[in-house]
Amino acid sequence: MVPRIVPMLHVPDVKATADWYERLGFTIVRTVTDGAEVNWALLRFGESDVMLNAGGKASEAFRREVDLYIHVENMEAMAERVREVAEVVEDVHKTFYGQRELIVRDCNRFWITFAEPAKT
Which neighbouring-strand residues pair with 10? Predict the structure, then answer.
């Protein structure tokens, strides 16, 4: 098996967060409950996974401890979907390192950057 890094975000409400990510196009692969609440979830976007775990704290910080950086193939389509769901931090822009990026906050204020190579 090839090693993979799968980030885990600790969030205050796993179900609400999983549902929010599903609206962006993530798939909820699996959830675990303690009988009353969803306390863990595995989400997938393309070939990438992210886990959500209960116990995180709400935050009003400008930027959280972890960002997600997601490579996409059609920035315009992704940006259209994302703008309907998320708070935009920086709209689509070209970076000095050759990417086109869109930066948003999720429902827990974690930053998500969607990126694709800029066409020259």
Answer: 53
* Alpha-carbon span 117 to 8, nearest angstrom: 26
Q: Which CATH architecture best describes the domain 1-56?
A: Roll (3.10)
Q: For the residues 101-113, what does the mean pLDDT come to? A: 95
- Checking if the pLDDT of 120 tops 80, the result is no
Q: pTM of this prediction?
A: 0.91
Instruction: Take residue 28 and report the two structure tokens written for it.
Output: 């909820």
CA pair distance 93, 111, nearest whole angstrom: 16
**Which residues, including other chains, have CB under 8 Å from residue 78's CB and lie 6 or more apart?**
25, 72, 102, 114
Provide the pLDDT for residue 49. Answer: 96
CATH number of 64-120: 3.10.180.10
